[in-house]
């Protein structure tokens, strides 16, 4: 036996095997805990022997055990179906009503996991389930359970309650009684079909040590390399084979944590040595860590993805011969990690690329959600957001013209729910959104969509290695799922929504192998995959406490107290494994960088793993900390833009003066008050805000619908007579539902006959009810004001006046235009009535010296607009003492329609005084607007509605792009 303390662990093992067996290795079985070390080990053998030899046999521990069983391992779906069949039979015998398979599925996964753990650790199911049953009975009657036991029981019942099975607690307590028999029946049923489980193979071999004798007889020696945590079945077999002189064990560990009973990292190695009497073939463990004084480089990253971004500056900038690994304690960092490695460096993903983190999964998930929606809503319509997501997806092959036409159709018809029929002329879109009703056809339809993507990307030479691997792996998984469903009638008869969930769960677990050269370049892997491997330089990402080690345990229905009593794994075992994985990184590496997120949020403790703190306290390792810049958000910041009134801007402004033809409306005025730059965008550059299709009609459509309803309501009354009485309003009220339907049709779909009462969807029904309620509120106020005379309804042409201002010392005229909702006369007083469905208020500031100041907390935009209408009407009609009234529907019942200050209504002399202030400030504001020396400038405290289009605006007006930089 030779010890090579400074060499990589696998090279030490290779050297020792050559010293024992020479080059006659063909009859050895080399068994690892995963496949990753095999390639490295072969390389070390080649370096040592320098000649061709007959290779030993290589296995993972799982493959080795499977090779020794006459039965095949059943796939997960077959196991669940078999378990459900046994469960149904047992409950039928008990005269209890069983759950159907879609409700049983999530329960079955946990039961199977528990069954497997019992097999791995050779625990008697009858004994342990009797304990659990007794606990459940006690919990029902007594209150002295521990918090831990109560938590277990509550979580168990909760898994049933999600299906609305409120009476299942009592039934399931009874089910615990038959759980041992369920285990036996399930095992027997699998065997009858020539199947078993992997854990069942372990139990079978460990309880009958002769079971695998034909397998072990094929080899001169079994070589177990790099094992740490082993279960009872493995321990039993390992001990037996060692006693038979058949097995050698090579443990990768350091005396620093093995010989110290307080070190959790050595827990399993000590257990292997003490309980199972396993001997380390390399002799006493080396003591590397005790004497090492290396510095651990801690990197504080400010944010989740910032942990990966630090790689760009930490990694070497040119290819190197050094062995480098990036280990992910948090494997969700894979994508940002790949994006952060300098392009000139080669890398190899040994952990596999998760489908769930790829654009392909977004495509699949959108399709699955659409199919689910069809079956949940019993509708053939698609939410417009789903269509927008589809046409904008990077993998969709939709021609640009077809995409633009489709989105235009949606916008023009204001489809919130798009009828399936409306998609038929768009072939690609219609095939994606086609409803599937049969389980097997569901899978075939998805396969066809994915093959189309594959072929198109390949033909257009856009197919990447990652895409090809992901598509291939996904199609393989779907084909396997198809075979499983085809094999089991109960799945074919299950609710199709369950099958959709099943597809998503399966695909969520797909990891595509995307391997380069695992012996060269930067190796990217999960922490668990690093077992047995040594690297000169290591970058450990996601090393937060709570992630390393994790603070949660896998799903189980076996309480912690019972797990401890029966020697089953508990949370401390998981922590011991994490500690081992971390400490062994330090044994041979020359440089370790530990990167963690120091920001505290829902997913981050903000603390580095406690293993680093332990080392800093107890060892000779030192820690140096590097702080990275805080991760920046992509939020858009206000742009401090200044637009001079020259060139085309001046030409456009001139068109508002004298006989230029352009008019200033109340909206234009309040836009300028809010922000001069906003006025420029809307009324000079003439760029409309991008229309946003929103499900919340209250934001941008209800107001227009209400205005249209009230316009039609009073137009029809005015045809007969302008004199409005309470009786006439009451008699006309039954017409409201019809008017609301027509108004919704014309405002949303541009056709007043588009909607029929029986064809409205749920959202439209809600909107109709809201509009009708709002109309009743307005009419209730009008009934109280009756009788009154209607003088004018909405008029787009007649109310325009010339308003004098001074520009460069000269008198110029601005055309002011008012579009007034309603003008009526009551008790000799003319009223301007403006309808509002938003949150506009009636109060305004006491000090009116700056009525137009938008920063004043009581600045009232609605007051400015109604005073604007009042001024124009008085100028055109010659009437005086006209009152502005605001019908803010949400407040109308409680607050009335008068503007007020200090709870005094705005009328009489108070109103006349305010009108004079308004006219003076209106003149000052318009003179500022048209003053060529005062540029349009944005008020940074105001939010503009369209930020993304700045570049378009300014290119159109000839400004250089540099003027847009913030």
UniProtKB/TrEMBL annotation:
Pfam family, one: PDDEXK_1
Gene3D superfamilies per the UniProt record, alphabetical: 3.90.320.10, P-loop containing nucleotide triphosphate hydrolases
Lineage: Bacteria, Pseudomonadati, Bacteroidota, Sphingobacteriia, Sphingobacteriales
Source species of the chain: Olivibacter ginsenosidimutans
Location of the PD-(D/E)XK endonuclease-like domain: 664-938
Name under which the protein is recorded: PD-(D/E)XK nuclease family protein
């Amino acid at each position: 036996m030779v010890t090579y303390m400074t060499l990589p662990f696998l090279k030490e093992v290779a050297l020792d095997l050559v010293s024992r067996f020479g080059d006659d290795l063909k009859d050895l079985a080399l068994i690892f805990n995963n496949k990753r070390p095999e390639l490295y080990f072969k390389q070390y053998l080649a370096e040592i022997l320098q000649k061709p030899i007959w290779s030993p046999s290589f296995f993972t521990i799982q493959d080795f055990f499977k090779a020794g069983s006459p039965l095949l391992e059943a796939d997960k779906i077959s196991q669940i179906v078999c378990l459900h069949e046994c469960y149904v039979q047992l409950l039928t015998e008990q005269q209890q009503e069983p759950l159907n398979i879609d409700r049983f599925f999530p329960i079955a996964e946990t039961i199977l996991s528990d069954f497997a753990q019992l097999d791995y650790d050779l625990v008697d199911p009858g004994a342990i389930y009797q304990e659990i049953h007794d606990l459940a009975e006690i919990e029902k009657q007594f209150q002295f359970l521990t918090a831990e036991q109560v938590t277990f029981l509550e979580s168990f019942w909760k898994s049933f309650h999600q299906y609305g099975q409120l009476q299942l607690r009592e039934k399931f307590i009874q089910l615990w009684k038959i759980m041992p028999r369920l285990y036996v029946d399930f095992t027997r049923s699998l065997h009858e079909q020539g199947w078993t489980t992997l854990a069942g193979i372990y139990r079978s071999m460990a309880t009958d040590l002769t079971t695998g004798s034909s397998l072990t007889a094929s080899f001169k020696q079994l070589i177990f390399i790099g094992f740490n945590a082993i279960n009872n079945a493995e321990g039993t077999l390992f001990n037996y084979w060692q006693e038979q002189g058949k097995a050698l064990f090579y443990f990768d560990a350091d005396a620093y944590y093995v010989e110290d009973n307080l070190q959790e990292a050595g827990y399993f190695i000590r257990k292997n040595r003490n309980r199972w009497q396993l001997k380390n073939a390399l002799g006493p463990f080396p003591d590397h860590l005790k004497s090492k004084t290396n510095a651990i480089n801690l990197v504080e990253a400010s944010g989740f993805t910032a942990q990966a971004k630090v790689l760009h500056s930490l990694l070497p900038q040119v290819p190197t011969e050094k062995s480098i690994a990036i280990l992910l304690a948090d494997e969700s960092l894979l994508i940002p990690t790949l994006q952060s490695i300098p392009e000139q460096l080669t890398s190899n993903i040994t952990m596999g690329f998760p489908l769930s983190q790829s654009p392909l999964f977004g495509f699949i998930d959108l399709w699955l959600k659409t199919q689910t929606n069809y079956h949940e809503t019993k509708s053939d319509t698609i939410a417009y957001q789903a269509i927008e997501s589809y046409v904008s997806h990077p993998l969709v092959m939709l021609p640009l013209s077809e995409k633009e036409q489709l989105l235009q159709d949606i916008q023009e018809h204001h489809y919130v729910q798009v009828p399936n029929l409306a998609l038929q002329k768009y072939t690609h879109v219609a095939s994606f959104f086609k409803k599937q009703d049969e389980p097997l056809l569901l899978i075939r339809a998805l396969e066809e969509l994915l093959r189309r993507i594959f072929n198109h990307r390949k033909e257009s030479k856009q197919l990447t290695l990652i895409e090809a691997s992901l598509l291939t792996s996904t199609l393989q998984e779907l084909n396997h799922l198809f075979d499983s469903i085809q094999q089991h009638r109960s799945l074919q008869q299950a609710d199709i929504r369950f099958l959709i969930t099943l597809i998503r769960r399966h695909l969520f677990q797909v990891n595509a192998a995307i391997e380069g050269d695992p012996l060269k370049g930067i190796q990217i892997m999960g922490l668990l995959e690093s077992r047995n491997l040594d690297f000169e330089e290591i970058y450990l990402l996601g090393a937060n406490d709570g992630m390393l080690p994790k603070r949660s345990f896998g799903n189980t229905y076996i309480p912690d107290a019972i797990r401890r009593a029966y020697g089953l794994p508990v949370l401390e075992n998981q922590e011991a494994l994490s500690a081992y994985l971390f400490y062994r990184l330090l044994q041979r590496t020359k440089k370790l960088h530990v990167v963690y997120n120091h920001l505290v949020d829902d997913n981050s403790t903000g603390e580095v793993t406690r293993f680093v703190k332990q080392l800093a306290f107890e060892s000779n390792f030192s820690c140096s900390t590097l702080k990275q810049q805080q991760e920046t958000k992509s939020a858009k910041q206000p742009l401090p833009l200044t637009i001079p009134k020259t060139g085309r801007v001046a030409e456009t402004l001139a068109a508002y003066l004298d006989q230029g033809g352009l008019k200033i409306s109340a909206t234009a005025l309040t836009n300028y008050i809010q922000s001069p730059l906003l006025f420029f965008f809307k009324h000079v550059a003439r760029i409309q805000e991008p229309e946003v299709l929103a499900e919340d009609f209250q934001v941008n459509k209800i107001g227009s619908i209400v205005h249209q309803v009230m316009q039609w309501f009073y137009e029809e009354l005015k045809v007969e007579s302008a004199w409005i009485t309470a009786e006439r309003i009451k008699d006309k009220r039954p017409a409201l539902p019809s008017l609301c339907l027509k108004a919704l049709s014309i405002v949303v779909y541009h056709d007043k006959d588009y909607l029929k009462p029986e064809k409205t969807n749920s959202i439209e029904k809600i909107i109709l009810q809201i509009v009708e309620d709002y109309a009743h509120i307005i009419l209730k106020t009008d009934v109280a004001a009756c009788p009154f005379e209607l003088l004018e309804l909405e008029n787009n042409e007649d109310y325009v006046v010339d308003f004098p201002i001074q520009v460069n010392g000269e008198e110029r005229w601005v055309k002011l235009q008012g579009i007034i909702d309603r003008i009526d006369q009551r008790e000799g007083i003319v009223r301007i009535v403006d309808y509002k469905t938003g949150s506009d208020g009636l109060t305004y500031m006491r000090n009116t010296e700056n009525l137009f100041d938008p920063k004043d907390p009581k600045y009232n935009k609605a007051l400015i607009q109604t005073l604007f209408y009042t001024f124009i009407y008085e100028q055109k009609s010659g009437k005086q003492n006209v009152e502005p009234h605001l019908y803010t529907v949400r407040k109308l019942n409680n607050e009335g329609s008068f503007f007020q200050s200090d709870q005094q209504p705005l009328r009489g002399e108070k109103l006349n005084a305010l009108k004079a202030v308004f006219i003076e400030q209106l003149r000052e504001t318009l003179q500022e607007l048209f003053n060529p020396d005062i540029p349009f400038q944005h008020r940074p405290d105001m939010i503009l509605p369209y930020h993304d289009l700045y570049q378009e605006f300014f290119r159109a007006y000839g400004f250089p792009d540099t003027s847009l930089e913030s």
